[in-house]
Write a structure and sequence with these properties.
With about 400 residues, the chain is an alpha/beta fold. Helix content is about 25%, strand content about 25%. The chain is built from 10 helices and 24 strands. The chain has an 18-stranded mixed beta sheet that branches. A two-stranded parallel sheet has the order 10-12. It has a two-stranded antiparallel sheet with strand order 18-19. Helix 3 links the parallel strand 2 (about 45-50) and strand 3. It is elongated, with a radius of gyration of 27 Å. The model has no long low-confidence stretch (mean pLDDT about 85).
Length: about 400
């Protein structure tokens, strides 16, 4: 590469340590030695990849000798080989990513007190039963974690181990957990407050009741089974997110629920991870998830935000999507608080409804508007000010057509 630049610029590059901070072990020992020399003691970022040159492994010794310079490290291979040669701990390391490894006893990477470590990713990793959680993390990702028991057997890591990690790291800002154990032993574990948590991604509902977070701006939750029924406490974090915004959209689709403000300031996404060919099961699950989320969000007080409702389910029966109709029925049926028994309308400030032309049930929309404007001992909901239709949920360029007048003039 240096032949393509002048000698002057080559000298500048050669004498700028910050330009020599990344090491890819797949390139072999010569590359590692060159970068270590030219970086001149500056912090280094390591990507430990598999190499086909099995006889060229002197780079392991070189990196172990420079452990105090490690700033971040991503292990795809050679974890145990490199860790075995460490004489001290990487005290300045702020990012540690490990894929497919077993953590041994007294691993120098896992001293719980690691003042600079901010991000930890463990993917397909086996930990010991007495594994001590790291402290001071801001980003945590766990996927496919297994645990070696005292008797040497290996099984999926229990929920309690995830709970320990959350307790040890109250300043987490990002939490991503995939392939959660299927066992449900979280009932005896108290929720951990994570006041700084901003982003959550979960595959499976077992971990959601383990923490409370009032300031999340992005929540992505995937239901991994059509029979999965998350407890009401699982939606506490989502409920807090919905309560603190002034306006948002609820989008109901055949495979997901989406809550968001449209500009990326916050987003809640609930997806079906397993798509069943049985439409009735899918419809019932999405409906129950929406009801549970709204019930949790309005448990103590109604949602005050102005809401747009997009009904984009397309599986049709009798000319209109059953799911769209059931959502309308849910929102035009008064609910009641469990403590006071006072009746109320869910989402009282529902002002805009967006629906596809192909599933436009004019008569049901008219009945919906009339029902929510009827006091009957309940404080009336805010009026629907707009009903928009669109030919396709994907084609945003075609825009919307206002059909509120047509809906209200419908006599069918």
């Amino acid at each position: 590469m240096w032949r393509r630049v002048s000698r002057k610029w080559k000298n500048v590059i050669d004498n700028c340590p910050s330009l020599w901070s990344s090491i890819h072990t797949k390139k072999g020992t010569k590359h590692v030695r060159t970068v270590l020399e030219k970086s001149k003691g500056a912090p280094i970022d390591l990507l430990i990849e598999w190499s086909s040159r099995a006889d060229d492994d002197d780079w392991i010794r070189l990196l172990a000798e420079n452990v105090r310079r490690w700033r971040s490290i991503w292990f795809d291979h050679y974890f145990n080989e490199l860790v075995a040669q460490l004489g001290s701990s990487p005290l300045m390391m702020d990012e540690l990513i490990i894929h497919g490894a077993s953590i041994p006893h007294d691993c120098k990477l896992f001293n719980p007190i690691r003042p600079n470590l901010r991000r930890l990713d463990l993917v397909a990793v086996t930990i010991l039963h007495d594994f001590d959680p790291m402290l001071g993390l801001e980003e945590l990702r766990l996927s496919g974690i297994r645990e070696q028991r005292e008797d040497g057997t290996i099984d999926e890591s229990p929920i309690s181990k995830i709970h320990q990690l959350l307790q040890a790291n109250p300043n987490l800002r990002t939490l991503k957990i995939d392939h959660i154990p299927s066992s449900r032993n979280e009932h005896s574990l108290q929720s951990v407050d994570l006041p700084k948590l901003e982003e959550v991604a979960m595959f499976g509902s077992q971990v959601l009741p383990l923490f409370r977070a009032e300031h999340c701006r992005a929540v992505r939750f995937t239901v991994r089974s059509i029979t999965e029924t998350p407890p009401s406490s699982a939606w506490t974090t989502l409920a807090h997110t919905l309560k603190r915004v002034k306006r948002f959209e609820i989008r109901v689709d055949d495979t997901e629920l989406w809550f968001g403000d449209g500009d990326g300031s916050y987003e809640v996404n609930v997806l079906l991870g397993v798509i069943t060919p049985i439409h009735e099961e899918r419809k019932d699950l999405i409906y129950s998830l929406l009801k549970d989320i709204l019930d949790e969000a309005e448990k103590d007080a109604q949602i005050s935000a102005h809401v747009d409702l997009a009904l984009f389910a397309t599986w049709e029966s009798g000319g209109a999507s059953d799911l769209n109709l059931e959502v309308l029925e849910l929102l035009q049926t008064p609910a009641s608080h469990s403590s006071s028994r006072n009746a109320y309308w869910r989402i009282p400030n529902l002002n805009v409804i967006i629906i596809l032309e192909s599933v436009m049930p004019y008569n049901r929309l008219r009945a919906f508007i009339q029902a929510r404007s009827n006091s009957d001992g309940i404080q009336p909901a805010s009026p629907v000010t707009s009903i928009l239709s669109r030919s396709s949920k994907w084609d945003y360029k075609k825009g919307f057509k206002e059909v509120l007048d047509k809906v209200m003039s419908c006599t069918g």
